Amino acid sequence: QVQLVEAGGGLVQAGGSLRLSCAASERTFSSYNMGWFRQAPGKEREFVSISWRGGSTNYADSVKGRFTISRDNARNTVYLQMNSLKPEDTAVYYCAAGFTWYDSGTYSSPEYWGKGTPVTVSS
Asked: Could you tell me the maximum CA-CA distance found in the chain, to the nearest angstrom?
């Protein structure tokens, strides 16, 4: 059982930045695709970004050029650097492990989820 613990959420003004982190309990962290999803109030959870275990990354169109995902396998941690934040980025951000994202925009259900960290962007 992999436990994921997110941190770094908070309140920020539009145009500002936040850095989320997700620490995993699993020592085989490097073998997992890791990523981030978000769920805004009244909306469905949506894909944000994936860090493939092979090293590449993908992003939702809505965050491309503003968000950067990275991972530190030695620390079992994945990060999401969020710049140029917009009010529409307001959501609870969830870390996820063990999923595949497809070019069609669909994805397989992650094996593990964190509990989420809230991000609020004020205008």
From this structure: 41
- The pLDDT value recorded for residue 105 is 82
The helix/strand/coil state of 35 is: strand
Torsion of CA 88, 123, 17, 77, to 10 degrees: -40
Beta strands in the chain (DSSP E): 4-7, 10-13, 18-24, 34-39, 46-51, 57-59, 67-72, 77-82, 91-97, 112-113, 117-122
User: Mind listing the pLDDT tens digit for each residue in 2-33?
Assistant: 899 999 999 999 999 999 999 999 878 889 99
Q: Assess contact for 82 and 15: CB atoms under 8 A.
A: no
The reported pLDDT for the residue numbered 103 is 83
